[in-house]
Amino acid sequence: MSDTLPELYFRTREGAATVFRVRLDPRSRRLALEPLANVNLGNGRIKPLGGRTISPGERQRIEAWMAERRETLARREIDDIFRTIDHLNATAHRLQTKAPDELVERIAEPLLLAMHDLRQTLIRRQAEIALRRRKKAEEGGEER
Predict the structure, then answer these.
(1) Closest CA to 51 of 65, 34, 63, 32
(2) Within a domain: residue 144?
């Protein structure tokens, strides 16, 4: 373990985290994680745990972590979408070149339904974007 420990440790979970103060007991040289707060990334709420008080410096570090975590999750979401495109391409190639008839029969319907749902969603969202752009251009704020 490193000689320099962070002051706070964040145990992440879906859309949130528990924040711990990191303590090192000098006598026993044991590491202690003291629960400090729960944070909600969706609404930005920081809730102290067990009657603990969050110092202004800790609050600032928690808020900085939350901003960084949101950026990380946004990058991952975009990466997941591009990874999905790669998976679709690989699936098409496999189905065309290697897949046995039984596999094609087993996956065709659920895959076609998922692709149809995705296609409808993309078309609807593209239309919404085009309408907003047209409206903005008509109002004189050209966004094209």
Answers:
(1) 34
(2) no
Cβ-Cβ contacts under 8 Å for 66 (sequence gap 6 or more): 39, 41, 44
| Domain range for 122 | 100-139
Q: Are residues 66 and 117 in the same domain?
A: no
Query: pLDDT by residue (tens digit) across 41-96?
Result: 999 999 999 999 999 999 999 999 999 999 999 999 999 999 999 999 999 999 99
